[in-house]
Amino acid sequence: MATGRVDLDGNPIKPMTICMIGAGGFIGSHLCEKLMEETPHKVLAVDVYNDKIKNLLEPSSQWGDRIQFHRLNIKNDSRLEGLIRMADLTINLAAICTPADYNTRPLDTIYSNFIDALPVVKYCSENSKRLIHFSTCEIYGKTIGAFLPKDSPLRQDPNYFLLKEDESPCIFGPIEKQRWSYACAKQLIERLIYAEGAENSLEFTIVRPFNWIGPRMDFIPGIDGPSEGVPRVLACFSNNLLRREPLKLVDGGQSQRTFVYIKDAIEAVLLMIENPARANGHVFNVGNPNNEVTVRQLAEMMTQVYAKVSGESSLDTPTVDVSSKEFYGEGYDDSDKRIPDMTIINRQLGWNPKTSLFDLLESTLTYQHRTYAEAVKKATSKPMTS
Ligand code: NAD
Ligand code: UDP
């Protein structure tokens, strides 16, 4: 653990206690690990699961005195306020945040992303505690360019697609496209936090992640998650590769995304944690504008990288097209393109992502292969029961 840490303005950083809600998830597990390995801060880790941070919590772990797990559901647990009061800073990561849920479980999605987050905001505001809240890039919805004719040269103009925290509109589809239930709930909680800042001086930072990916993201269906579950694209494609099935391209895989390596993104969060004077009152895009691909290109790259790290040949037909209705059901819709503008995070925190898409896929798929290949082989070779 480093001592004598200073912030970006050269001031010493005092050890703090952080109440991290959703600490057992993908981002939370990486953030806990980073805080334990590189800082003197303490973590009150709140979640309903802790599998992804078990290594940090074991009695034999060297971090045992700085991380404490509290298994609680923030929907209905009166211990939450006490934990927030004990901490200097609360980070809220808890959410339903897999697209397969947005159109099929819209009520749970709205409750999780808005209603369940309300007490967290309220307790922070009432107890004058700082809050870092995790929103989403999906708040921007579709780009303005998506509404231009396909051959319009304006589609190449960044004014029509670059997503800026302080300028871009939020463009969601119609109400029967329940995909937007998540974005809409996240937008309302962002506005509520902003209003708490304006009217009640809540010290807040809002994070808008742009497709953070890496080891421990979601689950592999039938191995460490439900066999009928549909995780986010990294885990879907990893599952297909592990099972030697074609990767499914939803509606032709034409949507575009920028992917950032989780370890780069966590650096940005640590800067926010340790530089409150620069982070408070801001909304930050956190992504890698240089790592843009279509979903089809992602599938091709993952196929190539997986062949390299596993030593297995690729399938003759590596991808298959599937309609969104078939894959996600009624009410699915998609964000067409997501490129983060980096001006504000550069200016406030001097942060830039480092890892190329190829490199991040190489380390992530090496992890996926090492972690799951044997288990998938066992599961698929089990004799069928009649
Ligand atoms: P995740 O699903 O891996 O983690 C969320 C964690 O919150 C889970 O461990 C879950 O058990 C916990 N949780 C949910 N509801 C809870 C409750 N009621 N009580 C206690 N714990 C609860 O997701 P993640 O990828 O780590 O995302 C974290 C946050 O970042 C979410 O708010 C998500 O919307 C946002 N986000 C992430 C990405 C990304 O690229 N990973 C993109 C956009 C937004
Ligand atoms: N997608 C796909 N095949 C899959 C899973 C996802 O083509 O097996 C597409 C999905 O339709 C979307 C993109 O991949 O266009 C990213 O999906 P993800 O679930 O990661 O979340 P999103 O970026 O939409 O929030």
UniProtKB/TrEMBL annotation:
Residues 18-287 form the NAD-dependent epimerase/dehydratase domain. Keywords: Membrane, NAD, Transmembrane, Transmembrane helix. It holds the Pfam family Epimerase. GO terms for molecular function: carboxy-lyase activity. This is NAD-dependent epimerase/dehydratase domain-containing protein. It comes from Salvia splendens. The lineage of its organism: Eukaryota, Viridiplantae, Streptophyta, Embryophyta, Tracheophyta.
